[in-house]
Design a protein that fits this description.
The complex is a heterodimer.
Chain A (H helix, E strand, L loop, with lengths): L2 H4 L13 H11 L3 E5 L5 E6 H7 L8 H6 L1 H4 L3 H4 L1 E2 L10 H11 L3 E5 L5 E6 H12 L6 E2 L2 E4 L4 H11 L4 E7 L6 E8 L5 H9 L3 E2 L2 H8 L5
Antiparallel strand pairs in A: 1-2, 2-3, 4-5, 6-9, 7-9, 7-10, 8-9
Chain B lengths: L5 E4 L18 H12 L7 E3 L6 H4 L5 H12 L4 E2 L1 E5 L4 H20 L5 E4 L21 H11 L6 E5 L6 H7 L5 E8 L23 E6 L5 H19 L3 E6 L16 H18 L4 E5 L8 H13 L6
Parallel strand pairs in B: 1-2, 1-5, 5-10, 6-7, 6-9, 7-8, 9-10
Antiparallel strand pairs in B: 3-4
The chains are: A alpha+beta, B alpha/beta.
Chain lengths: 225, 322
């Protein structure tokens, strides 16, 4: 779960002496919102975002580069004039959990990934994190979700995993909701099979309660006062 | 209302595909389906159709040659599964799958030659999860997809409408036709976040030229008759009234029944009749009554007899409820 595995490696970058209009065009072509700014040695020196670009362009010019070219003041604007210097970065050896928490905390959409020497190695965006967590959830593969209510005590998970493994069923993922009811947890194994009736009966036979999925769906809806 | 000439594809050889112990897709499914239809006194009213082996040319109209060859090899070498532990097989599975396809194509011919108006194909193994090059969810050859391609290529049918009310999304069928605007694929199934195979979300609507010719209605666990009535009326009927199919194919799955433990959808026996009556009416309105129903899932041996009996009565246009 390291950033190096989930980041985008082919980064679209820009030089500090390029113009704001070039940045606007690059972001439009690649459908991205962040451009790391690098020097000749690939060292990160700043970041420019679509918001930075938008804030220096006249409103009616934002979608129309030809219009902007007519404004000399805008056409001459360089990246180094508008970029954020000393941007927040993350290391390839940080984890995607770090990236997730940091993105939430700092309210940014992406971090340049920079190694110890200051060189740009990639970029990790909300989009990359979503892809990583989709992979972790296992939902790219066909399967069935079970919802099991368990007592909060040691060893429950092992029993469940053993029971399912004995049926020769592979796991896509297991999620645990730590707080469900008083002293109860909810376990959600995503099983890579269509053949679930036997394993459901087995778990019930072991004394586990299988939640009706709609029960917990209704629990999540806003309650009317 | 006149009686329909209804075909019934059934063959003892469909029982030869043996899935071994602890598997829900068992030969007994077909035996109880036949029994249920016979107990209703319906066999004399039906045109019985026997299986024939499919010409590989038509299987290749959907599946890759490599896949077909691999299936044959895996099967004859005596392996017990293919592509996933779900897909249990025996040495007869490949031939049985070819007989299922062939029987369905034979049925297509009879409908197109006006020998019969409609038909119920009680085949095994099922087909709607099978992808171009992958066996999935107990399915090896995609019977309904091959039938649709056969209708297009052999019978020059311009527009084929496929309705899939098996409780699991027919990923294979959807993917095979998602770019094809001449085949409309509609599926109603348990929501993919809870049920196999994890596809069939509302935003999957086809792609490229086929965008808008795929429609999915996910149903939440615990929902049943009322929601199906609402969704089918809201989604399926207007879509088919607009598409106006020249032929309707149905992936019939009885596994959304409340007594079927393969899903958490809670349909009553009566709701299945209502769904089929609605489909029958769509065929009356658009395809001169031409309609072929092909069995997919449905695992409650207790409920399958009544469900199959009602299904066939509707095809015969016999009134079930006064």
């Amino acid at each position: 779960m390291f950033v190096s595995r989930s980041m985008t490696i082919k980064v679209v970058t820009i030089q500090p002496d390029a113009t704001v209009l070039e940045a606007q065009e690059l972001m439009a072509i690649h459908q991205i919102r962040h451009l790391p700014v690098i020097d000749a040695e690939d060292r990160l020196i700043g970041v420019v975002t679509d918001r930075d670009v938008r804030s220096v362009l006249p409103y009616d010019c934002y979608k129309n580069p030809d219009c902007a070219k007519e404004h000399e003041s805008v056409a001459g604007l360089k990246i180094k004039d508008v970029m954020a210097v000393e941007p927040l970065t993350i290391s390839p050896s940080d984890t995607i959990q770090d990236a997730l928490l940091l993105i939430q905390k700092k309210r940014v959409g992406a971090f340049p990934v920079v190694d110890d020497t200051g060189k740009l190695k990639g970029i990790i965006s909300v989009r990359d994190l979503l892809r990583a967590f989709t992979n972790v959830l296992g939902i790219g593969e066909p399967g069935t979700l079970l919802c099991i209510l368990v007592e909060e005590k040691i060893g429950q998970m092992k029993k469940i995993v053993d029971a399912i493994t004995e049926e020769g069923i592979s796991f896509g993922s297991i999620l645990v909701a730590r707080y469900w009811e008083e002293d109860k947890r909810a376990v959600f194994p995503y099983l890579l099979t269509q053949n679930i009736s036997r394993v459901k009966k087995k778990l019930q036979g072991m004394g586990y309660t299988l939640l009706e999925p709609m029960d917990w769906y209704l629990d999540q809806l806003p309650k009317h006062e | 209302m006149t009686m329909k000439k209804t075909g019934f594809l059934f063959d003892q050889r469909y029982l030869l595909h043996d899935t071994g112990p602890y598997h829900p897709e068992v030969p007994e499914r077909l035996q109880v389906i036949y029994q249920g239809i016979e107990d209703g006194g319906l066999i004399p009213k039906l045109r019985m159709i026997a299986a024939v082996r499919a010409d590989l040319k038509w299987v290749e109209a959907v599946h890759s040659v490599d896949y077909i060859r691999r299936f044959e090899e895996v099967c004859f070498s005596g392996q017990s599964t293919m592509d996933s532990p779900d897909n249990r097989m025996c040495t007869e599975t490949y031939e049985t799958a070819l007989l299922a396809v062939g029987g369905v194509l034979q049925t297509v011919d009879l409908v197109m030659q006006n020998e019969i108006d409609n038909a119920f194909c009680a085949v095994r193994p099922p087909g709607h999860h099978a992808e171009v090059s992958e066996a999935m969810g107990f399915c090896y050859f995609n019977n309904i997809a091959i039938a649709a391609r056969y209708l297009q290529q052999q019978w020059k049918i311009p527009k084929v409408g496929i309705i899939d009310f098996d409780v699991h999304h027919g990923n294979g069928t959807q993917h095979i036709f998602e770019k094809d605007p001449s085949v409309f694929y509609y599926s109603i199934h348990q929501h993919p976040s809870f049920a196999y195979p994890g596809t069939g979300r509302e935003f999957e609507k086809g792609s490229v030229d086929g965008y808008g010719f795929t429609k999915n209605t996910p149903v939440l666990p615990g929902q049943g008759d009322e929601e199906y009535r609402h969704y089918v009326t809201r989604d399926l009927v207007p879509a088919f009234d607009h598409f106006k199919p020249d032929m309707i194919l149905v992936s019939t799955g009885f596994d959304g029944h409340r007594d079927d433990d393969m899903s958490d959808v809670k349909l009553s026996t009566g709701a299945f009749s209502w769904i089929m009556e609605t489909i029958f009416q769509l065929a009356e309105d658009h395809s001169k009554g031409k309609l072929i129903s092909i069995l997919e899932g449905g695992y409650s041996l207790k409920r399958l007899p009544e469900l199959a009996r009602n299904h066939v009565r509707i095809l015969l246009n016999e009134h079930i409820y006064p």
